[in-house]
Amino acid sequence: TESSKNEWLNPFGGYFSISGANDPFVGHSLTLDGDIGENFIINLNGANAEAAEVRFTWGGDPAAGIATHTNTVQVMSSKKISTNVGECFKVKLPVSAKEMKDLVTAELYVNGKKAQEDQYSVEQYALYLYQHPEEGEPDDLEKQQKLAEVCRAMLVYGAKAQLQFGYETDALADAGLTSLDPPKNTLENLSSDEISGLGTITLDNAGLTPMGLEFCGASLLLNSETKMRLYFEITDATVYENTSVSLNGTKLTAKSTGSYIFYDIADISATDILKDYHVTFSNGQNSYEAIFNPGWYISETLANNDNDNLKSIVTALYRYAKAAEAYFG
């Protein structure tokens, strides 16, 4: 999700540097999609983009040169943006919420030779913007407050993801907030009014009978990109063979797990976590639309689950979603 201000001044999706980045690395930004995009802004200064690639490493022990994750992105496949230093490439590395604390190393290679490297983490970036929102929104006090809150909520969500998935729990993403005086890593429980206002699933299995399906439940996957998984049982295999399932005109592909099949609503951005998704089931002359809202899973978890870490992460996800909605409008 990107704001409407000049792209190269945009701390979410554009060009914004918090640390004298080494040319050709000229800036950073984040993109709040289903995962979190760490964007490295690169000015190739006339070098051949087709011969350039960025090699990413993160996780593990950077000081010892031990990385648990690697990824290589071709610069030419990245989005071009116009900045005050000329045309640049926005090279994106997607990371999950639990990886906000990980320091990412980006090495630029041109024609097989290393040209430069840069490092930053989501935690560093978000904490800096939380403490200096006037640099991200220099002309709007209200936007500064909303920017600070989305950064704060993001870091708390990242910490709760680490605890839920047992990832690097000795160094939480909200540690910088915890060390402030007073600490700013608070996570308020949802009120009854907030819970009652969360989304629902609107579906009647009678409408799915002509599709050869029966709805069995849904879950929200938060370990990597945010996605809502919809589970079904096939009640008539012959009928189901001719059933098509789509979201906004895009066909969804079924996968199987045990005796069930499932469809994923993938890449749910921070601003869309509490929105309705209209899924269409079609078979010949029959068509049926069901509505799925990820907020349903949050309310169900808070009402019916005893796992404190899971309750904390969905609460933090809700606070993050509301803060993102407020900031991006």
Characterise this structure:
The chain has 329 residues and is of the alpha+beta class. 26% of the residues lie in helices and 32% in strands. The protein is built from nine helices and 17 strands. It has helices at residues 122-131, 133-136, 141-165, 175-178, 192-196, 205-208, 237-240, 295-304, 308-328, and strands at 25-32, 36-42, 52-58, 69-74, 79-83, 86-95, 104-110, 113-120, 201-202, 213-221, 227-234, 244-247, 250-251, 255-257, 260-265, 277-283, 286-292. A five-stranded antiparallel sheet has the order 9-17-16-12-13, with no helix packed on it. The protein has a four-stranded antiparallel sheet with strand order 1-2-6-5, with no helix packed on it. It has a four-stranded antiparallel sheet with strand order 4-3-7-8. A hairpin with a 2-residue loop joins strand 5 and strand 6 (86-95). Helix 3 (141-165) packs antiparallel against helix 9 and helix 8 runs antiparallel to helix 9. The protein is globular and about 60 Å long. The protein starts with 24 loop residues before the first strand and ends with a helix.
Question: What key phrases describe this protein's structure?
Answer:
single chain, 329 residues, alpha+beta, five-stranded antiparallel beta sheet, four-stranded antiparallel beta sheet, 32% strand, disordered N terminus
